[in-house]
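Hey team,

Filing this mostly as a record. A colleague (T.K.) asked me to run one chain through the structure pipeline before their review meeting, and I want the input and output archived in the tracker in case anyone asks later how it was produced. No errors, nothing strange. Just documentation.

Input sequence:
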Amino acid sequence: MSWTQITGSSCATKALARSSGQTLLILDDDHSLIEVIGDVSPYCRVPEGRATSAADSYLRPELQEEARALLLLARASGGREISRAIHLGDRDLAVRLEARTLPLASRQLIVLAFLPDPDATAEEIPAIGPSEVFNREILRLERALLASQDDLRSSVAELQAANEELEASSEELQAASEELQATNEELQASNEELQATNDELGAVNREQQTRSDALQELNTDLDNIQTSFTQGMVIVDRDLRITRFSSLAVRVFALIPDDIGTLLSRPFTPSPRASLVERWRSVTMTCRSSCRSCRTRSRTAADGVRS
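Output structure:
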């Protein structure tokens, strides 16, 4: 007897199975029967109507236990499992069972093939099946094992996805760490440059402070000289601009505080300064002092130029 499709399956599955030339059953994830290929009547007894039980329940009693074991092994390993030779008592026939996985899209089907072995020394298995309670318990355990395997596969897939995400995050963190390291090295180099600049500025500041202290001392000395001087004194720079003058010089040369910074040759009254310019130039060239008397409206004074 040749059976056709019992439940829906794709044309690709049937074509792949038929190409092997074997007599076989195609099962789904729960070991339910999907497709029958070839004449399996020597090995199975299927009632009329739609198949609703696990595929191994349709097998001959002497094949059921071996088929269950092979299906579980093939499902667990994802490979190919072959049984020992089994003798069918009412038929002068020895057969081996082969179970292998058949991936199809997102599903993983299982193929149970019947391989006649006329040359094998068959071992007859008594046709006395286990008790009904034992069968129900075995079926429950098988389904629990299948469910656990599915959960384990899902967990492994989730862990693999999580591991890939962690690896991607680790690579991003590594790249960020390298960028921070490079930035830190740049900041360290900048800090060293700023430290060197700060040291240079500190040295310049100390020099300026030394000069400022020297100028302060000089200014103090000049103030003391200017205060203690008993004659009118006017101090000019090399450009003949007035920088200082004593209180007595105010009456002699008619100076006011606004005259500081002005040229000595600026016209003024009552005492002319024009002659002082020539004499100052003469003193700076000869490095010899000059002194002469002059008369103002109120008194006679001596004006002198020293280099």
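Quick notes for T.K.: The helical segments are 11-18, 61-77, 132-228, 247-253, 274-286. Residues 287 and 307 are 6 Å apart (CA to CA).
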